[in-house]
Write a structure and sequence with these properties.
The complex is a heterotrimer of chains A (about 550), B (about 200) and C (about 450).
Chain A: E1 3-6, E2 9-12, H1 19-26, E3 49-52, E4 59-60, E5 71-73, H2 79-94, H3 110-115, E6 139-141, E7 145-147, H4 157-165, E8 171-174, E9 181-184, H5 196-201, E10 207-209, E11 222-227, E12 236-242, E13 245-251, H6 264-273, E14 283-284, H7 292-304, E15 313-317, H8 324-337, E16 341-344, H9 350-353, H10 371-376, H11 386-394, E17 398-405, H12 415-427, E18 430-435, E19 447-450, E20 459-462, E21 468-471, H13 484-496, H14 504-514, H15 523-527
Parallel strand pairs in A: 1-5, 15-16, 15-17, 17-18, 18-19
Antiparallel strand pairs in A: 1-2, 3-4, 3-5, 6-7, 7-10, 8-9, 11-12, 12-13, 14-19, 20-21
Helix pairs in contact in A: 7-13, 8-13, 11-12
Chain B: H1 11-17, H2 20-31, H3 33-43, E1 68-70, H4 85-89, E2 95-101, E3 109-117, H5 126-130, E4 136-138, E5 155-156, H6 158-162, H7 165-170, H8 195-198
Helix pairs in contact in B: 1-2
Chain C: H1 17-22, H2 27-33, H3 37-47, H4 59-64, E1 75-80, H5 89-96, H6 98-111, E2 116-121, H7 126-141, E3 157-162, H8 172-179, E4 203-207, H9 208-212, H10 214-220, H11 222-227, E5 236-243, E6 249-254, E7 257-258, H12 259-266, E8 276-280, E9 289-290, H13 291-294, E10 298-299, H14 301-306, E11 315-320, H15 325-339, H16 345-362, H17 370-381, H18 389-403, H19 405-409, H20 414-418, H21 421-425, H22 439-443
Parallel strand pairs in C: 1-2, 1-4, 2-3, 5-11
Antiparallel strand pairs in C: 5-6, 7-10, 8-9, 8-11
Helix pairs in contact in C: 2-6, 2-10, 3-6, 5-6, 15-16, 15-18, 16-17, 16-18, 17-18
The chains are: A alpha/beta (about 550), B alpha+beta (about 200), C alpha/beta (about 450).
Amino acid sequence: MPLVTIDGRQIEVEQGTSVIQAADRLGVEIPRFCYHPDLRPEGNCRMCLVEVDGYARPVVACATPVADGMVVHSPHESATASQAVNGVLEFLLVNHPLDCPICDQAGECSLQDFYMHPDYGLHESHVDPAEKVHKHKRVDLGPRIVLDAERCVMCSRCVRFSAEVSGYAEVQFVRRGNRVELVTFEDRALEDPYAGNLADVCPVGALTSRDFRFKRRVWHLESTDAICAGCSTGCNVRIDHFKGKIERVVPRRNPSVNRSWICDEGRLSHEKAQGQDRLLHPRGADGGELSWSEAIARADALLRGGRAGVPGRALLLGSASATNESLLLLRRFGELAFTQRTMDFRLGNEPELVDAREDHLLRRRDKHPNTMGAIHLGFAAQEGGLPLHVRAAEHDAYAALLLVYHPPLVGDESPEAAGALERLIRAVPASVVLTSHRLPFLEAATLLLPVAAWAEEEGTYTNYQGAVQFTGQALRAPGAARSAVAILADLLERVTLRRPDTSPKTLFVELAQAVPAYQGLSFATLSSRSAIAYPPEGRMHYGQEGFAGR
Amino acid sequence: MARKDSRVVDVRAAADAKGGVLRDAAGTLAGMEVTLRNMVRATVGREHVTIQYPEQRKPYSRRFRGVHVLTRRADGTLKCTACYLCETVCPAQCISIDAQEVEDPGIEKAPSRYEIDLTRCIFCGFCVEACPEEALIMSREYDLVSDSRDPQALRYGIERLTQRPEIAAYGAGFRPHMEYPLVESQIPGQEEPSPEETR
Amino acid sequence: MPAILTRHTDDPEQTELDVAQRRGAYDGLREALSRSPDEVIAEVEASGLRGRGGAGFPTGRKWSFIRPVPGQPVYLLCNADESEPGTFKDHYLLRRDPHLVLEGIAIAAYAIRAHTAYIYMRGEYASLAEIMAKAIREAQGAGILGESCLGSGYDLRVSIQLGAGAYICGEETGLIQSLEGKRAYPRVRPPFPAVHGFLDSPTVINNVETLANLPFIMTEGAARFAALGTDRSPGTKLISISGAVARPGVYEVEMGYPLLELLRHEAGGVRLGRRLKAVIPGGTSVPVLTAEEAAPVMIDYESMQAAGTLLGSGGTIVFDEGTSMPEALLRIAEFYAHESCGECTPCREGTGWMAWVLRRLVQGEGRPGDLDLLLRVGHNIEGRTICGLGDASVQPVRSFIQKFREEFEALLPREALAAPAWQMHGHGPRTGRFGPPGEEAALSDPVEGPPNAAL
């Protein structure tokens, strides 16, 4: 394998690695606009010029493969490279508008960052603002994206994303020289369901997100790493929020799950999670609001019949949108509180859909983030599923129901599942429902407990591949809503007279012990909060044929 | 306003020069020199050292950092583009802004809400210095009082920051970016200051 | 003077296949087909033929880079885009002797084992495309091209593709992109076209004039070709002369022929009896020569290089004493600003910026430091672009300013000459790493020297 030296530091990389990739691995910062780790290199911005010993001219680090013994000098240490990069930066700014005060990219803009860099920026301008070339500004490219052609640096990341990744190939350059402009064909709106990524790949403020437009300057935002709960893919995202409100959701790079992308539905799923119709207080069958101590006492009485003992079989329905941790506590509660119990999570055919693709890129048909986790935790016995339970309940098989419910964040609950849930709740004499939203088909429950929605609780999800990923808490749950883990811990305390430790670390250790597939996983592997942890090879899948052999 | 000449009294030097009880007394008297002098001026010379505030007011410098003013363009729209630089730089975190999109393609962005909580403001003027458009300047208005305990009373929104009677009464104050031409008709008291006043 | 390319071009009938064949057309192809492709390559290598498109790369060596991969086709592309300003030699050949070009294409295609060849012609040559298409039809009808050329069993399909009139399509990877139906954005090399070219297959791109030399080499032999011209620049060269001469046009000269001799005799000397001021010898992309510099120069690659310029495409532009060099340079700079494809940053922004500065200079609105600004912008473009257009745009700017600086300075307003740059711009003295004008010299490449070292 070639050994390459960059700024005096050596690294051995695979044949075919580009200089910029080697530098990234070494942590040597090389400025770039057009290079993107998940797009084909194009070498057009010329910003990543480096000096290589033995080469007469500076070369572009993104399109130059390393060779054994290559000695590279980045602009941080080479005056030649620094001067070259500065020259390119000056060119990029020749016709760049002085828009920063009203540009949403300001604060996370590569042009700003590079210009302010002492090693290759901070040149004096020789251009009169009146001489700049003018292009179209504020062009609407559909519901997701706004284009400002003057701010464009023609790096073609969006063109390549559109052509290579999403396949819609909707944006392209027209005209020549410094009059080049990004356009869509006949100025049509973008139809790409992944169009939001165009704003993410844009290193400057040319393509900005319509949803985030003028909402907040980026330096005010706080960020929390999370996992998208829109479907079973489990895309890694970063939630940017301000004063308890999510302002935007952007993808976080994870080469083995979502690379650098997310779909627009996932990007906007927080609007539903944090939307209207949230259940804010515990509520009894009479519709009266309850305090939490009353609510927990009533739930305990309903489910276990107080000290008098268990009146019959209990049905515990988990949710494929709940975290592994809450499912673990639900399972433990079921095991400790009831001698006769049935545990399930299936509202439809999630286990069959968990791996089914909706398109060629990321979206999957199972709209739950943790179907695999529920399977791993043993919530799906061979016999089961919602219709079966409804029939059983209507034949008085169940004395009590504990349901954890989160509505799907992408799309609506299927009418069949909603109808079946309503019938189930009406059929079981005592039903305790943990739900984040107020939904008509749950209204008949004996007791409704408000539970935190996505981004309001932390925990782990297991995606379709079996990757266990940590999702963080960005917001406080609204009203009196609490995390499912906290509510279930209260219920467990009633049974064991000792409140379980609900710290994420303890819960994860217990999870790793409880689930055979997760043995060997440790919280440390997750707690970088960006890393994903796969269960060890060969143990990651539920023993069904559909999941094996991947 | 030109800087007033004032005498600096070195109390210690004055005291050290004498000795004994006299020395102590001299130190005290030296420290009270200004007071005594003004007492003599007021009683013997019948000269008014103080003024009858609020009926009488002293002139303030045009660089005075008083209550803020949001300036407007000739067509009456706010110059502010909601860039949030004032909110970002404010050490007291008393400015809060919400932005909205506007139709004018040359402007694009304007505040839908712009509030300064003057109970928290420390009148440092950083916000005015940060403003790239001279959309925010300060007036010479200094007597900021409210006869209500309503916390909103001194929370000025766009309306009061652009057109309260005090702006005309006191005139414009701190305006560090003189190179930006201001629409003079919007702000009274904009007679060009002399160079030493703007230094 | 010996002629290889223009032997029969004076006869308008030469475009007819039977007329051309009577004069020996396709004899060279017959000769080539009787040998193995490798023998053809060896013969061309021995002849010392160098590419006539501008770069002067040995043609035989270029062919030898092709390593056919089983199952993957090889393509020959004939570059008839001829977009270098001042160059119209290929136009002359295509119009006057299409079969000579076609024969050259067939020989080259056979040598590199290509069965498909494309003639990429600029859009403005639509009328030539008709002539060429007729020639191809005739040759195919006569069994010379198409299936089993001249009964040899070697198949060759030749097609014409018209561009839409962009300078960048003459750049070989830009040409490939355009031929593939894409925007003509040049590709980053490596990989080179010889490995990943047209449709990702090994590809050779040759200029029309280069190909037209091949029939002679095949019929007369490499030795006779090499005997013409100089040692390192064998053969003849087509020179397109335009500008202030009495008889502009295309002239074929033996390599090593004195440049001024050609201008004085064949081209009839400078028009209206004026004095010669400057010559651009190889298209606008090469440095200009003053009259004094041009005096000892011969028309061959080495002599041109010794004089600090290049033979290029042989597009010779003559300036007489009445020419305003700044205005001429503005015209050239505007051409490059217009033709920059806009793919990579330095060329996209730099060419436009140079044109902008030159325009205000010519309009009498120049600013102090503008000449140094032009040189600095040029320095920042050169060697940092994907293709050669960036470098090409810098050569005229630098050489014009270096050699005719007084003329440019005369255009600057008087006060602009006196004041230091930063005072006029209304900025304070520049600070920071790339700040004061004097510091640039220390920062630029010590080997090449500062951009204005020669001033």
